[in-house]
Amino acid sequence: MGETRVLVIEDDKLLAEMYRQYLTADGHSVCVALDGEAGLIAAQTQLPSVIYLDLQLPKLNGVEVLERLRLMPDLKDIPVIILSNFSEPRLRQRCLMLGAVDYLVKAETRLAQVSQRARQVAAG
Predict the structure, then answer these.
(1) How far apart are CA 59 and CA 88, in angstroms?
(2) 8: which strand partners?
(3) 3-state DSSP call for residue 8?
(4) What CA–CA distance (Å, rounded) separates 45 from 21?
(5) What are the tens digits of pLDDT across the range 88-124?
(6) Which residues make Cβ contacts (< 8 Å) with residue 86, sequence separation at least 6?
(7) Which of the residues in the chain have pLDDT under 70?
(8) Number of CB atoms found within 10 A of residue 116's CB
(9) CB 55 within 8 A of CB 83
(10) Cα separation of 23 and 50, whole Å?
């Protein structure tokens, strides 16, 4: 089993670095993008095993990124896990209907869960 390649699309630099450090220490290969446009470019160039996607992003928001990923033949099957501060059931449902495989609320999710979930989703 190869390493899990994780793309974290998160505009909060402190959070992005925290996720990068933790996931890297737990054996994942990690790429970080700080806005929606950079996230799409990174997805195309890195072809990650799994994408963690924040919803409140500059340039393109997370829902727009998710919609675009699902329209791109090379990227449409990459599992996307929403990692957001928003906990509204309607937003969660919309993201899942658009093809996200999971929706995690940052305040309710420990770093160990982020790493474990990436591994589970990437393994299928």
Answers:
(1) 22
(2) 32, 52
(3) strand
(4) 21
(5) 999 999 999 999 999 999 999 999 999 999 999 988 8
(6) 55, 56, 105
(7) 1-2
(8) 12
(9) no
(10) 12
Q: Locate 58 and state its tokens.
A: 């500059």
The domain 5-123 is placed in CATH, from the list 3.40.50.2300, 3.40.220.10, 3.30.360.10, 3.90.550.10, at 3.40.50.2300
pLDDT at 124: 80
Q: Angle at CA 109, nearest 5°, toward 50 and 77?
A: 20
Report the amino acid identity of residue 55: L
Q: Residue type for 12, please?
A: D
Answer yes or no: pTM beyond 0.85.
yes
CA 49 centroid distance within chain: 10
pLDDT for residue 1: 46
Distance from CA of residue 114 to its chain's centroid? Answer: 10
- C-alpha 40/C-alpha 14 separation (Å) is 21
> What pLDDT, on the 0 to 100 scale, is given for residue 2?
60
SS3 (DSSP) at 72: coil
7 - beta bridge partners? 31, 51
Token representation of residue 25 = 């220490």
Strand partners, 50: 6
Structure-block tokens of residue 27: 């054996």
